[in-house]
Write a structure and sequence with these properties.
Structural class: alpha+beta
Largest sheet: 5 strands, antiparallel
Strand order of the largest sheet: 8-1-2-10-9
Order of helices and strands: HEEHHEHEEEHEEHEEH
Number of strands: 10
Number of domains: 2
Distance between the termini: 25 Å
């Protein structure tokens, strides 16, 4: 039997390290307890072995909690930013018929993903489902596919429109992310579609769709009074990397804790490594 001290870790600072040099330092206003990695994996395996509850399309009986949507948004941002160097195109898939059942739509999507992965084993994508005004499902994806390639061929008699291979259920579109300016933010762009027209038809369904081996940011948990954290923050401030600090209030006070969010952008690889090493000493 494990003791609480062996299983749990108390922290009030959570730090995320993204490959593009971004660092998010979240300082919570009260302590939080989390399962340590080893025990978390054991509990996760135990949980995944249990049969999952299935939801019907009677979604009017359920309501999406705001904190659940907030977690989906954060997950989407994490994957979008951490894999930002892999995104080359933005793809939309729609249905010709009025396919409004998300379960049915997702089966067509799974078949498409299977065909794409069979032809292009390195295919990666991050996306969200959305309901059109007519009720039909459609999908938006950031992908590592290049427009003009075999996967996204140029449409006949056009010079700037592209098809999506293997999707024959309706209209498709793809555009080149290289055409966007430096201010374009992939993470914010894809999360726009997560919140657009969101309703309870998504209750109990995957709101973040992943294809391929997407990476998540490295995460460290520690206390604000730890010397490692104090040293790292002093270094970040001294070098002028701190770009944002704001107080974030929970979307649902019952499930979240207010926190100060500090953001830094460290383009210098040596400085980035120094900060990460200091924080990850703990």
């Amino acid at each position: 039997m494990y003791s609480d001290a062996e299983i749990s870790q108390e922290y009030n600072v959570k730090v995320k390290f993204y490959e593009n040099g971004e660092i998010e330092l979240k300082e919570y206003l009260s302590n939080i307890s989390r399962k340590k990695s080893k025990y978390f994996e054991e509990l996760k395996e135990e949980s995944e072995s249990k049969p999952k509850k299935k939801y019907t399309d009677d979604s009017e009986f359920y309501e999406i909690r705001r904190d659940s949507l907030s977690r989906s948004r954060q997950l989407l941002i994490d994957y979008a930013v951490q894999n930002s160097s892999d995104w080359h195109s933005f793809v939309t898939l729609t249905f010709r018929e009025n396919v409004s059942d998300l379960s049915v739509a997702n089966k067509f999507l799974e078949n498409w993903v299977r065909s794409m992965r069979r032809r292009f084993p390195e295919f990666m994508a991050l996306g969200v489902p959305e309901f059109q005004k007519r009720g039909a499902v459609h999908y938006h994806f950031l992908t590592n596919l290049f427009v003009g390639s075999d996967a996204l061929p140029l449409q006949e008699k056009t010079t700037d429109k592209y098809d999506v291979l293997f999707w024959d259920k309706g209209f498709t579109s793809a555009f080149d992310l290289k055409l966007m300016d430096d201010k374009f933010n992939c993470a914010l762009y894809i999360t726009f579609y997560l919140y657009k027209d969101i309703d309870n038809r998504f209750f109990g369904r995957k709101k973040v769709l992943r294809v391929g081996s997407l990476k998540k940011p490295d995460v460290a948990y520690l206390k604000a009074n730890d010397e490692e954290y104090k040293e790292a923050m002093s270094y970040i401030k001294e070098k002028g990397y701190l770009i944002d600090r704001r107080l974030v209030w929970p979307t649902d006070g019952k499930f979240q804790i207010p926190a100060y969010v500090n953001k830094a952008r460290i383009d210098d690889q040596e400085d980035y490594s120094i900060v990460k090493t200091k924080i990850c000493k703990k």
